Amino acid sequence: MEQLVAVWLGGLDGETWWEQDADEPAYAASLVKVPLATAAEVLDLERRVPVHADFASAAGGRFTIERDDDQDDATWDALGSTETLGELRRRAIVESSNIATNLLLEQVGIAAVHDVLRAAGVSDRTTITRGIGDLAARDAGLANQVTARDLGWVLAHTPASVEEIMLGQRYRDAIPAGLPAGTHVANKTGWVDGITHDMAIVRPTDEHGGAPFALVVLTRTDDPHEVAEKRIAGLAAEAWGRRR
């Protein structure tokens, strides 16, 4: 596995303040959930939809995801019932729920996610083509990959409603852990074996001053997940010193 530690730090106007391998692509993991949440803005978020665990594959046919690979007991407990799209969107971000993500994507459509990426001005290195756990599509070469710079631009175009959801993020041991206590950090993590990522909108308090900013750290290493999180926290602390 080729090692990667990529960083993009910049203003919410897209200006780069600090970068490191920011254009190197990496597997997106759960970071796809942020542009999906933005794409869902156009939906009636109060509408209830059936909860199920099988989905149409981008490669044709259907695939099923497993509860053991997920963190969202509430949605899995609702199998056979319904849930609102707004709550599914919240769980996709806060709990990093895979089932909620796929249920939301089923309603949004991949084309709407592409529209969000285009509006943010991302490069062709960033592609989101399939749902979570769609192994047939992955094996057919349909990639979910991102770069740190592109995700910084996605954050710069993330609406306040999605940022508010990200503030409730359950997983706070990477970027937030490297920043001063009490700092507004709206983040989204992503991880699988060998991959640990975090992306965040950060708004310094009046006490610390400075402009709000976006920070993205993507890592592809042999480190255990907890070690990778500590590395990201250290880079967040360095980014804090480089902010404007």
TrEMBL record:
Keyword annotations of the record: Hydrolase
InterPro entries in alphabetical order: Beta-lactam/transpept-like, Beta-lactam_cat, Beta-lactam_class-A
Pfam families, A to Z: Beta-lactamase2
Single GO molecular function: hydrolase activity
Domain of life, per lineage: Bacteria
UniProt domain Beta-lactamase class A catalytic: residue ranges: 12-219
The keyword Hydrolase belongs to this UniProt entry's keyword annotation: yes
Name by which UniProt lists this protein: Serine hydrolase
Source organism of the structure: Nocardioides plantarum
